[in-house]
UniProtKB/TrEMBL annotation:
Residues 6-360 form the Enoyl reductase (ER) domain. It comes from Tolypocladium ophioglossoides (strain CBS 100239). Transmembrane segments: none annotated. The keyword Oxidoreductase applies. Pfam families: ADH_N. This is Zinc-type alcohol dehydrogenase-like protein. Belongs to the zinc-containing alcohol dehydrogenase family. Keywords: Oxidoreductase. Gene3D superfamilies: Medium-chain alcohol dehydrogenases, catalytic domain, NAD(P)-binding Rossmann-like Domain. It comes from the Eukaryota. GO terms for molecular function: oxidoreductase activity, acting on NAD(P)H. InterPro entries: ADH-like_N, ER, GroES-like_sf, Trans-enoyl_RdTase-like. The keyword Oxidoreductase applies.
Length: 365
């Protein structure tokens, strides 16, 4: 059996180790074999490494966002060809499909082909964010996305995005291409495995959060540090109650979301969230949707739903990215290449030291 180099975590909370005996896979009929060039990190990477949850068991090859080049295709793979540059999020926690190794498997229907207007680095910072936002807005709240290239006039309907300064929030705000107006608040949330970082760092970051949200395309901002009642009043004063959807991209703001939805004049109200635990009571008259993107590629009803919707929306979103109506998130490329550099970058990210989305070059084209 052919083997290859990559990173392995032997047990939950264990360190990443460089190994050279990982199995090298052969693509199935509708799969492609991809050589990752860039990878980036998300909170889910820290979560999997620390807990082992979402993995198929330990030892585990992890990872999420990537961009890379197709080096092989299956017998029925018609959408991808050898040499194509692709990007996406992998099937989380599935060793053969994880991008922190020399090659890995992708399902051809679940990846984006890179367009000329974005770089491979930007592609590597896009998959998890844009697809999670798509589930929160398009799937969970049934918001209509026009075809790429279609100009839609602004209408008097708002979408409220909580956690707009993060990667998922950035892409959620870009639902403005649906014609909706966007109001967004920003949650400062950094730290090692859900631990709050130093208050001084939060304060420094908070100085630019409003500008960051507006730069992503929001029409108005929201003071997330205010009480839920005050946030609701602020939303009402700006939107006049003309909204039906609150998307919590932070997984932390259900209290504020429910107060805000009390101000909605819509007949049907939607609360969509990246919080998969949902340890709260949803108010009467509010439809709830949990984004469970971590189930991509898995068996079971939720996994099938996530996989089918991802296959449906990937080409649509790719069209908007190519047209520039959906734009990449701000990022920084880590100063160092290769697998050991990825380990060091992950440590910095897990300790809350990254100010932007971190992308690491692990191999060359």
């Amino acid at each position: 059996m052919a083997t290859q180099k990559g990173l392995l975590v032997e047990e939950a909370a264990g360190p990443f180790k460089v190994v050279d005996d990982l199995p090298r896979s052969t693509p199935g009929p509708k799969q492609a074999l991809v050589k990752p060039i860039f990878v980036s990190m998300n909170p889910v990477d820290v979560f999997m490494q620390q807990t082992g949850i979402l993995t198929m068991g330990m030892p585990a090859v992890l990872g999420s966002d990537f961009s890379g080049v197709v080096v092989g295709t299956g017998s029925q793979c018609t959408r991808l060809s050898k040499g194509d540059v692709v990007y996406a999020s992998c099937n989380l926690g599935q060793n053969l499909c994880s991008p922190i190794q020399e090659t890995f498997l992708v399902d051809e229907a679940l990846v984006f082909k890179k367009s000329d207007n974005i770089s491979a680095e930007q592609g590597a910072a896009t998959g998890v964010g844009v697809l999670t936002a798509a589930f929160g807005v398009l799937v969970g709240a049934n918001v209509t996305l026009p075809e790429a290239g279609t100009r839609v006039p602004k209408r008097d309907e708002w979408l409220v995005v909580l956690g707009g300064s993060g990667t998922v929030g950035h892409f959620g705000i870009q639902a403005y291409c649906t014609g909706m107006r966007i109001q967004s608040g920003s949650l400062v949330f950094k730290g090692e495995f859900f631990r709050r970082s130093d208050p001084a760092l939060q304060k420094a970051a908070g100085l630019t959060l409003q500008q960051k949200v507006l730069a992503s395309g929001a029409d108005a901002t929201l003071n997330n540090r205010a009480s839920p009642a005050d946030q609701a009043a602020e939303v009402k004063s700006i939107t006049g109650g003309m909204f039906a959807v609150v998307f919590d991209a932070s997984a932390l703001a259900h209290e504020a979301a429910f107060k805000i939805l009390e101000q909605s004049s819509a007949g049907t109200k939607h609360f969509t969230t990246t919080d998969v635990a949902g340890q709260y009571t949803v108010p009467d008259g509010v439809k709830e949707y949990h984004v469970r993107f971590g189930e991509l590629g898995r068996d079971g009803d939720i996994g099938k739903h996530v996989t089918q919707e991802t296959a449906k929306w990937t080409p649509v979103l790719a069209g908007h990215i190519a047209q520039g109506t959906i734009t990449p998130v701000e990022l920084e490329v880590y100063d160092g290449n290769g697998w050991q550099a990825l380990i060091e970058a992950f440590k910095c990210y897990a300790h809350g030291k990254a100010k932007k989305k971190v992308v690491v070059r692990v191999q060359n084209f």
